[in-house]
Each structure stands twice: as structure tokens, then as C-alpha cells.
Design goal:
four-stranded parallel beta sheet, Collagenase (Catalytic Domain), 261 residues, 10 strands, 18% helix, alpha/beta
Length: 261
């Protein structure tokens, strides 16, 4: 599993709002398909492994996951909807399995996902690792970061790993506990495995996949510098471009809100 850890539509964006996003183009992962051809939108079944969280004494991450799923459904406005399953057995179709543990039961030290619908899962369920706590690599205490991982599973890639990123990353500032895996969290994508949202190539600082400069950094350090002091949002919301680009990718015509307007 990789640690991976988008302006036309049913509305018109002003030039100041037109920014870009990047998608996965690795053939192993793709968009999620509609459950039935006649469905008006894409529904994605999700199982939340509450037993695994309870076993590790985590009492808050499941609530944050549920809130993140609800906000994603709201922000995607009828284009894509996550549907929580009561059980992981006899699902009968591909689904997402959110847990803090690998298939062998070992609790992960970091959050992780793959960039889209895993085409080879054959109904077994694909893991989205959401790990609670506030340490480096963990995202379960942040609804915004959980939403970023959910966006990754829809094929939206991390903005801060774009090949043309304007941010200046200082990988030496990474938290020592991420030794061996940290560099991969910030490495730039190869242009061979991404698709740039075609209508405007500009970097989207408001993207849900954009993390703060302090995330995963050693104490008192920052991982990167935004040009011109550009702030990173703290709200758990998709940007207007996140929404518009995902709608384009999934073939929807919806009205997207700009929460950072």
C-alpha cells in the first residue's frame, strides 16, 4: 500500500477562483463506478472497523470519520455519496474498509490510502488506514485530514506533491518518528501517474488535500513554506475546485460551494 498519503460546470467560476488539481492516472486505480447503471450519482459503500478502534482504546476517531463522511457527502452535493455499511460480510461488491489496522491486525503507525478505487479488489474491500492520535503521520484527530484521505480514494491526489508545486519543502525537518517513510509523504509525483485538471493548471492552496506546513514536522519546525505567506485553511471543507474537479472526473453537473470565498 502506498502512503499517499479538478473550471466549467453547472456554475461559472470567476477567474480569481480558477485553480487546478491533480488526479491519479495509475491504471491500477480508477474512479468508483455507480452501483447500478441507472443511479443518478455514485454511491460508495464504506465499512468502518469499529472493533479495531475499540481494541486499541481509540474512542474518538470513529466519530471524526463519520463526521468527515457526512461533510464529504454535503460538499459533493449529490455527485458522490459515501454509504456506511453495518457489516463487512456479504457486501457483494467493491467497498471501502476504514480501519487503523492492516489485514493481519497490526495497528498502522500512519494514515495511508491508495489513489482511487483499487481495480483488483474483487469485493474484498480496500483499506483506508485512519490512525487516531496527534503524532506525526496520524490523522484521526483531524476531520480535515480524514477528508483529505477520502478525497485521495476518489482519485484526487495531494496538491502538495504535484510535480509543479510552488511550495519549498525541507524534508530534513520531518519528525524523526517518520524515519524511513516520511520522505515518501512529500516526494513529488511523477508526471506519468497523474492527470492535471485540464481547465487551469494553477496550484490550489485551499484544496482539502493541502496540509499545514507544521504537519509531520519535528518540534518547532515546518515542512514547507508557502509563497507569499499564503495561509493553509483549517476548515474541514472541500475547496470549490476540489468539488468542481471531482464532479468533472465523475461526470456530474452540480453547484459547488466556495467555503473560503
Amino acid at each position: 500500500m502506498t502512503r499517499e498519503h479538478l473550471c466549467i460546470f453547472a456554475f461559472v467560476l470567476t477567474a480569481s477562483l480558477c485553480r487546478a488539481a491533480v488526479f491519479n492516472s495509475d491504471a491500477r486505480y480508477n474512479t468508483w463506478q455507480k452501483l447500478f447503471p441507472t443511479d443518478p450519482y455514485t454511491r460508495i459503500p464504506v465499512y468502518i472497523d469499529t472493533a479495531a478502534y475499540a481494541a486499541s482504546g481509540d474512542t474518538t476517531t470513529v466519530t471524526n470519520i463519520n463526521n468527515a463522511l457526512l461533510q464529504m457527502n454535503t460538499d459533493l452535493n449529490g455527485c458522490i455519496q459515501f454509504i456506511v455499511l453495518p457489516s463487512s460480510t456479504n457486501v457483494g461488491r467493491d467497498f471501502m474498509w476504514i480501519s487503523n489496522a492492516y489485514n493481519n491486525g497490526t495497528v498502522s503507525t500512519t494514515c495511508a490510502t491508495v489513489p482511487g478505487h483499487e481495480m483488483s479488489q474483487a469485493g474484498r474491500g480496500q483499506k483506508l488506514l485512519i490512525v487516531g492520535g496527534t503524532g506525526a503521520g496520524k490523522c484521526g484527530s483531524s476531520q480535515r485530514q480524514i477528508m483529505g484521505k477520502l478525497a485521495n480514494t476518489l482519485t484526487l491526489r495531494n496538491e502538495y506533491q504535484r510535480p509543479d508545486r510552488p511550495i519549498a519543502v525541507t524534508i530534513n525537518n520531518i519528525d524523526p518518528s517518520l524515519s524511513g517513510v516520511g520522505a515518501g509523504m512529500y516526494s513529488q509525483y511523477s508526471s506519468a501517474i497523474i492527470q492535471v485538471y485540464p481547465f487551469n493548471p494553477t496550484y490550489d492552496f485551499n484544496s482539502i488535500t493541502q496540509i499545514s506546513p507544521q504537519t509531520n514536522a519535528a518540534a518547532g519546525q515546518t515542512m514547507f513554506t508557502n509563497p507569499g505567506g499564503q495561509a493553509t485553511p483549517t476548515q474541514a471543507r472541500l475547496s470549490a475546485i476540489d468539488c468542481a474537479a471531482l464532479a468533472w472526473k465523475y461526470g456530474c453537473s452540480i453547484a459547488c460551494q466556495d467555503p473560503f470565498g
